[in-house]
Write a structure and sequence with these properties.
CATH architecture of the largest domain: 3-Layer(aba) Sandwich
Number of domains: 2
Structural class: alpha/beta
Strand content: 15-25%
Shape: globular
Helix content: 40-55%
Strand order of the largest sheet: 2-5-1-6-7-8
Order of helices and strands: EHEEHHEHHEHEHEHEEHEEEHEHEHEHHH
Largest sheet: 6 strands, parallel
Number of strands: 15
Length: 355
């Protein structure tokens, strides 16, 4: 029986879709496959009620009978963290819980796929980082990374050093066409030369990138103030307008496929955002309607303006959560990721099973 743990260098780069897609690919090749997410970090409340959709999606798509508490034995909530730093959580007991649940789920399988955290440091306060989990269950580790520029190699090298000999390889996901040559011709060979195995690079495809403005508006419960704007535009990141108009414009011009968040009374920031081609939508906070001139300009540019009642800090958290969730939690997304993985990476080396 082989075990693979999928971890990542950051949140929102496709770890869930990749984890389930890898498991499903092996299952469709005739292998008995199990799934586990040792630490649940997608929470409904600080007291630890989980809303983690990842194990539920895996259970549905892989047709598993396991219970949620078995697939996700630790709910890594703020309350859990507070109790842990006060010495009220026993690292040995937690490790034993993870191993016992793993062994129960792994019985009779050819392959176990474990979904790790968004950060290799998560779990460190109870000696249960992704590397600790991999050692406890004897798993090889697939590291998922995005790619911005050659500087990404710094993060990958640091993560690879932390993982050590258990690293099966690095999988770059969501790579833009404009960055693919640099990655494959320079960065990947460099990493291989440093002893870091690379499994391949998955290209960015629009249907898996970010969320649409319409989806964002619905998740935020926002009022849409523009009528002719493009609600099917995709946004992958956010920027906050909290400076002067000139400084904001300079910042906005450096971003792409972004939603800009600012107070509804900050007309100069809103105007600057509408001059930047990479800003796909404005989210205005505090329930303040913008000036009519701003709305008129937004209509001309086809940029949606969304209005929420919450304050800017709360809105940032909510937008971050929506974008971090991405478009990973449905069958169509996982099936598309399967296709991309089959075309782009060394699957047999990643999973250590015949396909």
């Amino acid at each position: 029986m082989n075990t693979v743990l999928v971890t990542s260098t950051d949140h929102g780069i496709g770890k869930t879709a990749i984890s389930v897609a890898l498991a499903r690919t092996a299952q469709q090749a005739g292998h008995d496959v199990g799934y586990m997410k040792p630490k649940g970090t997608r929470l409904l409340s600080a007291v630890g009620k989980t809303r983690d959709e990842d194990p539920m999606l895996a259970r549905e798509l892989l047709d598993l009978d396991a219970e949620m508490h078995e697939m996700e034995p630790i709910v890594y909530s703020p309350t859990f963290v507070q109790e842990a730093v006060r010495g009220r959580e026993d690292p040995d007991e937690l490790r034993e819980r993870v191993v016992e649940n793993f062994e129960g789920l792994a019985e009779g399988t050819d392959l176990m796929v474990l979904e790790g955290s968004d950060d290799l440091a998560t779990g460190g306060i109870v000696d249960l980082t992704d590397v600790d989990v991999a050692e406890a269950v004897d798993a090889r580790v697939v590291l998922v990374s995005g790619y911005e520029d050659a500087g990404t190699a710094d993060d990958v090298l640091a993560a690879a050093e932390t993982i050590g000999d258990r690293l099966a390889g690095v999988l770059f996901n969501g790579v833009r066409d404009s960055e693919l040559d640099e990655l494959t011709d320079a960065v990947m060979p460099f990493l291989e030369g440093q002893g870091v195995p690379v499994l391949g690079a998955v290209p960015r495809v629009q249907e898996l990138a970010g969320v649409t403005v319409d989806e964002l508006a619905r998740n935020l419960g926002a009022d849409v103030l523009t009528s002719d704007a493009t609600m099917d535009a995709h946004v992958e990141r956010f920027t906050v307008g909290a400076m002067s108009g000139n400084a904001a414009l300079e910042q906005f011009r450096r971003t792409r496929d972004a939603v800009m968040i600012t107070g509804g009374d900050r007309s100069e920031i809103q105007t600057a955002a509408l001059e930047a081609s990479g800003i796909r939508a404005l989210v205005l906070t505090g329930g303040f309607r913008p000036a009519s001139a701003v709305l008129g300009r937004a209509e001309e540019e086809g940029v949606p303006v969304l209005l929420v009642q919450s304050d800017t800090r709360t809105t940032i958290d909510r937008v971050e959560d929506v974008l971090g969730s991405g478009r990973t939690r449905d069958r169509a997304t996982v099936e598309r990721m399967q296709e991309l993985l089959t075309e782009s990476i060394d699957l047999e080396n990643a999973l250590s099973v015949d396909l």
